């Protein structure tokens, strides 16, 4: 059962990454029309609708606790969760949610306009890390709920997925934004805000 669960998660992660990859996105842009206008919304819905049965299957399995955050360990657990919440909130404040969820692309298609260019910002939390939501994902994965013999493999797979997904997202952003993003990458850490707040200087040359 646990091997089956691991295979399901690996397939979900692989498909999730493939559908948002630069080659697929470029192909959809060339197709134009309703495909281009609805791709991002369809992707968001697909991600959620395929995640629900996967989570249901995981939680229906018999599980044995192998680790839980208890006693003094609740202090680092709380600190990691607080960090994750800060990253999530910071990302929400700076990300263009309409573009991220696909509503901007949908409106452009309905109005007969080209898709809006990818908005690029290096303000707010993006002065600390390049990917605040991915950065929040790792502490959330390892601090929410007890670790069991079943969800341990899920946590490992999703942790690897977050790292690989971050690297793939980097390639996609470099492809879409160009030298400005490359300059940004040289200054701001990817996931861990070890530099603190960075005064970003962008170069488009």
TrEMBL record:
Top-rank taxon: Bacteria
Ranges annotated as spanning the membrane: 6-28, 40-59, 79-103
GO biological process, one term: methylation
Keywords: Membrane, Transmembrane, Transmembrane helix
GO CC list: membrane
Pfam families assigned to the protein according to its UniProt record, in alphabetical order: NnrU
Topology with respect to the bilayer: Multi-pass membrane protein
Entry protein name: Protein-S-isoprenylcysteine O-methyltransferase Ste14
Example GO molecular function: methyltransferase activity
Organism, scientific name: Candidatus Electronema aureum
């Amino acid at each position: 059962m646990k091997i089956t669960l691991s295979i399901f998660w690996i397939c979900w992660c692989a498909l999730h990454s493939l559908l948002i990859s630069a080659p697929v996105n470029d192909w959809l842009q060339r197709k134009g029309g309703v495909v281009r206008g609805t791709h991002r919304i369809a992707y968001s819905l697909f991600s959620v609708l395929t995640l629900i049965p996967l989570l249901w299957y995981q939680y229906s399995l018999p599980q044995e606790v192998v680790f839980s955050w208890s006693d003094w360990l609740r202090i680092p657990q709380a600190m990691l969760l607080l960090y994750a919440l800060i990253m999530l909130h910071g990302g929400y404040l700076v990300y263009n949610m309409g573009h991220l969820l696909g509503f901007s692309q949908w409106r452009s298609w309905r109005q007969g306009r080209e898709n809006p260019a990818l908005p690029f910002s290096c303000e707010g939390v993006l002065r600390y890390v390049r990917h605040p939501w991915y950065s929040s994902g790792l502490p959330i994965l390892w601090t929410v709920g007890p670790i069991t013999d079943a969800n341990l493999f899920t946590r490992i797979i999703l942790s690897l997925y977050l790292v690989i997904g971050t690297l793939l997202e980097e390639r996609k952003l470099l492809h879409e934004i160009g030298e400005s993003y490359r300059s940004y990458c040289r200054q701001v850490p990817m996931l861990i805000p070890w530099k603190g707040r960075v005064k970003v200087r962008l170069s488009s040359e």
